[in-house]
Specification:
4 helices; 6-stranded antiparallel barrel; alpha+beta
C-alpha cells in the first residue's frame, strides 16, 4: 500500500455516497436562496431570521435559512436609495399641494367672482383666456360676441344703443334711456343675426333695463365682475355700437371713481333717447358739477355714482360694456361728454374727448333680481 506523503489535514476528506465513491464536493442538502437585486452594483442575500423550507426558521445561531452562523453585523451603510424616493415623494406631495391650492383659488374666483354682500348673484360667462389676459385684443376677441346693438323705435323716432348678453337664452342688460318708451326693439348680434326683444324690467333711478330676446339660445354670455375692486389707473376696454358701428372697440384707463352723474329719468326729457337716427345726431344729456352737457336733462332726473374713463365713448355706446383686462364687465357705459354741445366749446367737433361714465356693475348685480321680476320705475 502506498502511503500518502501529504500531511494529515492538508486536503479535506469528503463523505461517501454509499457506493464507495466519494462526493467532491458534496451536494448541498438544500436549494440556495437566490440573491435579491437592489440596484446597479448592489446584491443582498436573504436577511437573517427568514424561514425557509429547509431550516424552518432562525435559531441556535443560525441564519433562519440554512442554519449557518452569521457574522456580527457591521455598521449600516447610508441608505441613500431609500432617502431619495422618500425625498422625491415629499417633493411631489408639496408640488401637488401647491397646484391643488392654485386650482382651488381659480375655482373660487370663477364661482365667487368677487361677489359681496351688496351684490346679487353673479352671472358666469366668457372671460379672457390665460394666454391673452392683459391684452386689448384678447379682451376684444373674447367679449365682442357678448355685446349687441339695440335699435329701439318709439313715437319720437328711432334710437341706437348697446347691450350686454348675460344669459345664453337672451337676457340683455342696457341703459333705461336706450329703450325707454320703445314700441319695438330689434337686437343685432356680433354675427349679424337679428332678434326681436321685449322689455322685462326697467329702473329709471339707476338708468338700467333688462330686455329678453325672443327664441334665442346658445348665446355667449359675459361675466359680471366686481366694481369694488376697480382702481384709478386700471386699464379698461369699451365695446359698443357708436354711430351704429356694431362691435367697435376702444381702450383707456379708469380716470376716476364715484363721480356723481345726473341723467334724465324718461325719454321725454331733454333730447330723448340715446341716438336720433342711424347717422348720429342727438346724444344723451347729463349733468356733472352743476353743469349740463349734451342738452337739457329736464326736471325728472336721477343721480348715481359712476366710473369715469377716458376710453372713447360716442353716441350709441350707451348700454355697452366697460371691461377689465381679465374680460369681466365692471360697468355699463351710460354717458359721455360731447364738446360740440357744450356752450363753452360750441365750435368743437362732436365725439368723445376722454370723458365717459359707466354705471358700476355692482349696482347692476344688486338690481338684477328686481329687473327680472318685471318691476319698472
Amino acid at each position: 500500500m502506498t502511503e500518502s506523503q501529504r500531511p494529515s489535514g492538508e486536503y479535506p476528506m469528503y463523505p461517501s455516497y454509499g457506493n464507495g465513491d466519494a462526493a467532491y464536493p458534496p451536494p448541498p442538502s438544500y436549494q440556495p436562496a437566490p440573491p435579491v437585486a437592489m440596484g446597479p452594483g448592489t446584491t443582498v442575500w436573504p436577511a437573517p431570521g427568514t424561514a425557509d423550507a429547509y431550516t424552518g426558521g432562525a435559531g441556535n445561531g443560525g441564519d433562519g435559512l440554512h442554519g449557518l452562523p452569521q457574522p456580527a453585523p457591521g455598521p449600516s451603510a447610508p441608505r441613500r436609495r431609500v432617502r431619495r424616493p422618500v425625498a422625491l415623494l415629499a417633493a411631489v406631495a408639496i408640488a401637488a399641494a401647491i397646484v391643488g391650492g392654485g386650482t382651488a383659488t381659480v375655482i373660487g374666483q370663477l364661482t365667487d367672482n368677487g361677489t359681496d354682500s351688496t351684490a346679487g348673484s353673479v352671472i358666469p360667462g366668457t372671460t379672457v383666456s390665460q394666454s391673452s389676459k392683459g391684452t386689448v385684443s384678447g379682451v376684444a376677441a373674447a367679449l365682442s360676441p357678448t355685446i349687441v346693438e339695440i335699435g329701439a323705435t318709439s313715437t319720437s323716432g328711432q334710437s341706437t344703443g348697446s347691450g350686454v348678453v348675460i344669459t345664453s337664452d337672451g337676457e340683455i342688460v342696457t341703459n333705461n334711456h336706450v329703450v325707454a318708451g320703445a314700441t319695438s326693439i330689434k337686437v343685432t348680434l356680433s354675427t349679424g343675426k337679428t332678434y326681436t326683444a321685449e322689455v322685462v324690467g326697467t329702473d329709471a333711478d339707476k338708468d338700467l333695463a333688462l330686455i329678453k330676446l325672443q327664441g334665442a339660445s346658445g348665446l355667449k354670455t359675459a361675466t359680471l365682475g366686481d366694481s369694488s375692486k376697480v382702481a384709478v389707473g386700471d386699464q379698461v376696454v369699451a365695446i359698443g355700437s357708436p354711430e351704429g358701428l356694431t362691435g367697435t372697440v376702444t381702450s383707456g384707463i379708469v380716470s376716476a371713481l364715484d363721480r356723481d352723474v345726473t341723467v334724465a329719468k324718461d325719454s321725454d326729457s331733454g333730447s330723448g333717447q340715446e341716438q336720433g337716427g342711424q347717422g348720429g345726431g342727438q346724444q344723451w344729456p347729463f349733468e356733472f358739477g352743476g353743469q349740463q352737457f349734451n342738452g337739457d336733462t329736464g326736471e325728472s332726473t336721477t343721480t348715481y355714482k359712476a366710473i369715469q374713463t377716458d376710453a372713447s365713448l360716442n353716441p350709441g355706446n350707451s348700454g355697452g360694456a366697460l371691461i377689465n383686462m381679465n374680460g369681466e364687465i365692471i360697468g355699463i357705459n351710460s354717458a359721455m361728454y360731447s364738446a360740440s354741445s357744450s356752450s363753452s366749446s360750441s365750435g368743437s367737433s362732436a365725439g368723445s374727448v376722454g370723458l365717459g361714465f359707466a354705471i358700476p356693475v355692482n349696482t347692476l348685480k344688486a338690481d338684477l333680481d328686481t329687473l327680472r321680476a318685471g318691476n319698472s320705475s
